[in-house]
Amino acid sequence: MVLKVAIALGIGYLIYLGGRFIFEKSPFFPVSTVEITGNQYIERETILALAAIDYSASLKDVDTEAITNRLLGNAYIKGVSVTTLLPATVRIDIEERQPAFFLVDKGLYMVDETGLMLEKHPNMPIFEVPMITGLSRAAMAKDSTALPGALSLVGKVKYMDREFSKSFSPMISEINFSGKGEPELVLVKGGARVALGKKDQYQRLFLLGNFMLKQQESQLYEIKRIDLTIPDRLIVQKRS
Q1: pTM for the whole structure
Q2: 88 with 121, same domain?
């Protein structure tokens, strides 16, 4: 029994080697299929145009490294893996850049977690991504702390989703930095402005989250302003 199994395995391995030899030496097996995965907003047609795959070439002659480099020339592509699959498939796995926030500055720009800034891609969704106002690209170029500060605050707002079951950041429509760098939040419901300040931001955001959860929707529309700049206090100013 053991001998039969060993013979069967040996035959199978020889068949594999033979098939591999034929594939590597054969001028046939031209590329017939391109599989693309991972892309959400970059169109398939754009990826194919960048990849520039020669469909007349044999699969064994596909230069995956060259295809990878061409694709990485697109700034919206953060990472890519290109592989070939027998008998005639090229597979492209795309990792797109994702916005940490959108910057409003005479247009709309995406900023990823590394601080890279690009014009918003036309197909990039804007829902559930913080909007930053009151900062300009020119101001960021002059002040090296502006961009890291914005990324840090956005990270803190998103961290609050862990504390409030992903219900915190959807309550914030905008983060504004126009007040001498003192950030203010703008609420989705009612549009109240929240003076956050620069210190103890985690504690202040947590205080805001607890307050918001206790309010009925109609009550939020009655609020004009919330001040969190006094330690351990939340001051509410209602609309007259």
Answers
A1: 0.82
A2: no
